[in-house]
Design a protein that fits this description.
Radius of gyration: 16 Å
Oligomer: single chain
Order of helices and strands: EHHEHEHHEHHEH
Structural class: alpha/beta
Strand content: 5-15%
Number of strands: 5
CATH architecture: 3-Layer(aba) Sandwich
Amino acid sequence: MRIHIFGDSLAYGEWDSLGGWAARLRMYVDDTLNIGKWNYHHVYGLGLPGETTGQLKNRLERELPIRINPDEENIVIIQSGANDVNHMNGFTGEQIPKEDFVNNYADIIDVIKKYTQSFIILGMLQIDEEKIKKIFSENGTMLLNEEVKEYAQLLKGFCVRNDYPFIDLYALVDPSVLIDGLHPDDEGHIQIFQAVKDFLISKGYVS
């Protein structure tokens, strides 16, 4: 089995002392399925800080063909969206329009389905707008609570309409655990890890 985790700095594991929820998932899989059992299940953390959904779509087109092993179960997990809402994101310097955001996700799913039918979309987190203003005022980062909520609802609605596997993180991770208003601390990453682990168990991917 191969679990491929793509996304932005949340998938990368920004600010977690153990490398993020994806790294914690890898440790869990190693401890429960691999070590001492001669299994070779792999979890690949492929988060790229600052990446938008459009950038992710293009990266998937390049990377998935060389990462997928057709002789194994392949599961793709996607966590992306906050950078699209940022009015000064590092890739385009402007907010990604809502219609493009949803269309990008549709394209992302189309790319994934070329190689595997097993995938999971993670919902967006809440933010702490005031903390972001204080910490990121110099680099121009600008996210607004209401806009993040709108994009989060768009993503959830897109997944529900299409019956795509979806883990809703918006209410799960409280803004109080966001170190800089965007990225969770260890506690927040543990919450995401637990949600993903439980979902994978419910689908029979891990035990």
